[in-house]
Amino acid sequence: MEVSEDDVRQAEARMQALRSAGYAVSARYDAQQQRVAVRLHNGVHFSFPTALAEGLAGAAPGDLAEIEISPAGLGLHWPRLDADLYVPALLQGVFGSQAWMARLALEQQKAA
């Protein structure tokens, strides 16, 4: 399949639209709080508990500490865990696949 210049322009426009909501410029694991802290380009900071995130729950602190940010700033990657999270989804409270989120909801209902 051939990719046209128009296809490339459309893909770049979609990426820019996604980045307008915020993209990561730094991310770190806070072992004491057991949370990942993310700073966006616009100065917004947010964090989430690793226990909520698919691929991160139950991982060793050393594995959680190594975080890579995708070139567009829309993805976080943990190479030692082969885990990836999407920044726009995290901002919406989505911490994994539909199955993962359903399991989390069920666990929270049982705990309530």
Topology:
Elements: H1 5-20, E1 24-30, E2 35-40, E3 45-49, H2 61-65, E4 68-69, E5 75-78, E6 83-86, H3 87-91, H4 98-111
Antiparallel strand pairs: 1-2, 2-3, 4-5, 5-6
Provide the descriptors you would attach to this structure in a database record.
3-stranded antiparallel β-sheet; 112 residues; alpha+beta; single chain; NE0471 N-terminal domain-like; globular
H-E order? HEEEHEEEHH
At the third CATH level, what is the topology name? NE0471 N-terminal domain-like
Total DSSP helices = 4
Strand order of the largest sheet: 1-2-3
- Roughly what is the average pLDDT, rounded to an integer? 94
What gyration radius follows from the Cα positions, in whole Å? 16 Å
What's the CATH H-level superfamily name? Answer: Uncharacterised protein PF10387, DUF2442
N- to C-terminal distance? 52 Å
Structural class: alpha+beta
The outline comes out as globular
Q: Number of folding domains? A: 1
Percent strand equals 25-35%
Known CATH architecture: 2-Layer Sandwich
- What share of residues is helical? 25-40%
Number of strands: 6
Assign the CATH class. Alpha Beta
Largest sheet: 3 strands, antiparallel
Low-confidence stretches: none
Task: Describe this structure as you would to a colleague.
There is one protein chain. This protein has 112 residues and is an alpha+beta fold. The protein has one domain (22-111): Uncharacterised protein PF10387, DUF2442 (NE0471 N-terminal domain-like, 2-Layer Sandwich). It is built from four helices and six strands. It has helices at 5-20, 61-65, 87-91, 98-111; strands spanning 24-30, 35-40, 45-49, 68-69, 75-78, 83-86. The chain has a three-stranded antiparallel beta sheet. A three-stranded antiparallel beta sheet has the order 4-5-6.
